[in-house]
Every structure is written in C-alpha cells, then in structure tokens.
Amino acid sequence: MLFLVSIVSLLFSHALLSPTPDDPLFKHIDDHQHEYIQRLKDWVAIESDSSDPSKRDQVLHMMQVTKDYILQIGGTVEMAELGEQEYSSGKKLPLPPVILAEFGNDTNKPTVCFYGHMDVQPAKKADGWKTDPYVLEEKDGNLYGRGTSDDKGQILALLHAVESAKKFGLPVNVKLFIEGMEEVGSNGLEQLVEDKKDTFFSNVDYIVVTDTPWLSTKPGITYGARGNCYFFIEVEGARRDLHSGGFGGTVYEAMSDLVYLLGVLADVNGKILIPGIYDDVLPLNEQEKDLYKDLVFDLKDLKRDTGVNTFLHNTKEELLMHRWRFPSLSIHGIEGAFSGSGTKTVIPAKVIGKFSIRQVPNMNPSVVEKQVSDYLESKFAERKSPNKMKVSMVIGAQPWLANMSEPQYLAAQKAVKRVFNVDADMIRAGGTIPIAKNFEDVLGKGVMLLGVGGPDDAPHGQNEKISVYNYIEGTKLYASFLKELPSF
Ligand SMILES: *[C@@H]1O[C@H](CO)[C@@H](O)[C@H](O)[C@H]1NC(C)=O
Ligand SMILES: *[C@@H]1O[C@H](CO)[C@@H](O)[C@H](O)[C@H]1NC(C)=O
Ligand SMILES: [Zn+2]
User: What CATH architecture applies to the domain 7-225+399-487?
Assistant: First the structure.
C-alpha cells in the first residue's frame, strides 16, 4: 500500500448499494468471478515478498506470471531491466524487471496508463495470521491472504476489467506500468520513469494508480496527499556522557535544551507555533467544504479502533481536514537519550530530537526548512545556553494535489455512479505518496488514485483481505472507467 492509513469505518452496508445495472459487460464480469477468484488464489500463492532476499526468485516469478497473463489477454509486454541490488554485505540480487504493457495504440483514442505493484509485504502465520498468508481463503465474503488487497487483488481487478472491456471493444489505449519493489521503496523506478518519458510515456494522457483503499465501503477517489518535512535537532553539551551525581547542578544539559525546543513547536491543541508556517496553506473554499459533507466516516469507529477518546477535532469534517489538508507537526523520538527500563542516572552528552511536519499545498519544503530553522535558532538564542544546537531537514517530500476537473476524474466519478449508484467520496491521503508527485513532476501528466481496496483490508498487517464485493464490483469500476474516459 502506498500509505499506511487504514481506519476501520464499516457502516455503509453493502446491501444499501443498489445492484449494478443490467449491462453485458457487467454480466460478463459476474459470470467469470470464480475464475477471477481462482487467479487471485494462484497469484497469492507466489510469495513475492520483496523485502526477503531468499524470496527474490518468487518476485521474479511473479513478474513473469503477470507478463504471461497480459500476453494471454492480448497485450504486448516489454520487461524493463533494472539491474542488480547491492546489499551492504556485498551480496547482489537481481532487481525484478518492470512490466511495460500496452493494449492498443490507436492515435485517435486517449491513452491511460495504470501503475501498480506485484510484490508484497512480509507475512508469516506466526505473526498472528488466522490462516496461511499465502493460501487464499474465502470466509464470510472476504478473501484472506497476503497481497489480496495490496496490490495483487487491485491489479487483477484491473486486468480482468481490461480483458472484459476488450470483448466489447476497448474505447481507450491502455498501458500498464507494474513494478516488483514497491514495498521496499521502488528501487530504480524514478530513473526508469525519467528514461521512458519520451518513449513509453510519450503518448500517455492520464496516469492512474491502482494501489489505494477507500475511506469506507463507499468507493473513493484519491486526489491529494500531504508531503513530509522531517527534521533533526541536535544538541551537544559535554564531550562524553556524564553522571548526574557528579555533574548534576554543574552543567547546562543538552537534554533539557532539546526538551525545551521540542516543547515550543506546537501547543496542546496541535497548533504549530512556528511563525509563518500557515501562510501558504491553500485557503478552504465552499466548493472544497462541500466535498466533506457526504463522506462516510464515523468518529465512533475511529475511537474504537484507536482507543483514543478525545480527538483534537469533534466533527468528521474538521478531523478529516486536519488529516488531509492542514499541516500537522509530530514529535517522533530522541536519539541518544536513555530509553531503557530502570533508573539510569546519565546526563546524555549529545541528543537528537526528531520531528516532522506533514505539509500541504501550497507549502514549499525549502520555505518550511527556513521557517523551522529560524524559529528554533531564535528560541535557542533566547534560552542563552552555551551548548551547540543544529537543525537539519532530512526529508523534504512535496505534497500532491490533483486538478479534479481533469477528464480522468470525471470519468471515474461517472463510473462510480454507474456501478454503485452513489457519488464517489473524493478523498486525500494524510501520508505521502511519492509516486504520484513523481509521475506528475517528471511526465507533466495528471495523476489519479483509483483503488478498490476496502478501508479495513489491513494491507500491511495480519489477516490482509479484500472483500469479494470490492474485488468483483471493483473490476466493474475499472471496466466502466475505461468506457467513460473517451467521452470527456
Ligand atoms: C501498434 O500496434 C500494432 C499491433 O499490436 C503493431 O503491429 C504496431 O507496430 C504498433 N504501432 C506502434 C507505433 O507501436
Ligand atoms: C483543471 O483542468 C481543467 C480541465 O482540463 C482545466 O480547464 C483547468 O484550467 C485546470 N485548472 C488548473 C488550475 O490547472
Ligand atoms: Zn501497495
């Protein structure tokens, strides 16, 4: 999964949704659902865990199986080799090639390129799975197994949609860009996108990422993500750690300075106290406010899921806005501090405080970096400590916000309406989605996240699943999307 937000919010019963309309394309998909589930079972059985060097051959095998299926349903495939991955031990492993596939190249039709991945997170029965993670099990309308939701199930829903839509005449050109190293950071992918800019991607009009969950059981389309500026504050006092019995009361302590600095970053209500930090935040307008009204999201579920009784915001709208479209500051840890159990009486010589700011459009990481440094330096100067203090920004990932008036969004909204007879939830990710920003920056094309994962699929956790409903109706969603796209 591209981001780790998974909040349980199950209130929209499937029964509330109208059945899909009579349509030969939908009937074709319904008639083949057992075959689709069997294929997912076969693919889940391939342990394509990209983090485990001993399973690299399984990842390579998975890419090959995917390629074979694309060829079988009439696509053309190029395997882009990425070379080798070198471990610090000196050991080398082949990187799985990236699948560049194409269905149709009619210059009179729009071309949509879908991105997804075939590698999975690690999974062992001993981690607390109720079933063998690599043996797909169907239970109570859900399909359990590693990769069922993230991302094999979503990619298969797409492939089955392409295969079905082809039977009725594919109204768009479809390209696929499928990798095998997503779960460990997409090694080599950014360079490949750059390298293929003027070839594979040159005729692509729209990019759709198929690796994302809905907010509820109501279909959601993701149009934005927050960025992340991650900071270290390093405070250094003595040359070595000291003992509080021998030195307590005699030295300016690095830890006290750091705790003070971490303490002035935000107030108790989460308001960031750094001057100017909110200046560039895109103002909220009525049109955007309206998008939040019909979102299906229940604070009670969130409370139950997290065990948090009192959140910073009391309404669904405020809470989601603060998760998606306002910046936030979180303190993550202190390196060099005593953190074990018991009562060590050390005065740490040097400590590094870690915090990050989730930033939003139109904040700029380099401006944020300066605001943070200036503020912390002035606060430290006020304190008049003789210790050394240094602020550095170690990650500066940009936020992403799409233009929802673009054709791919209109087509996706129409497809949701057609398959589910509801208006799509227009949602954002609170976390960062580097690939979206990367596609947009390098290719200059609009990006949309249209996934079919459920809100409680546990993509990186134990007992990962996708519901049969999401899997099969999601196939119809992708097929309808392909049908709608040329009309905008
Ligand atoms: C278009 O597709 C056809 C059939 O797959 C192929 O023969 C032809 O070479 C392709 N043309 C281009 C420009 O890729
Ligand atoms: C958003 O997309 C629409 C449709 O393509 C276009 O007319 C509009 O100018 C775009 N808006 C921005 C701010 O780029
Ligand atoms: Zn994923």
Answer: 3-Layer(aba) Sandwich (3.40)
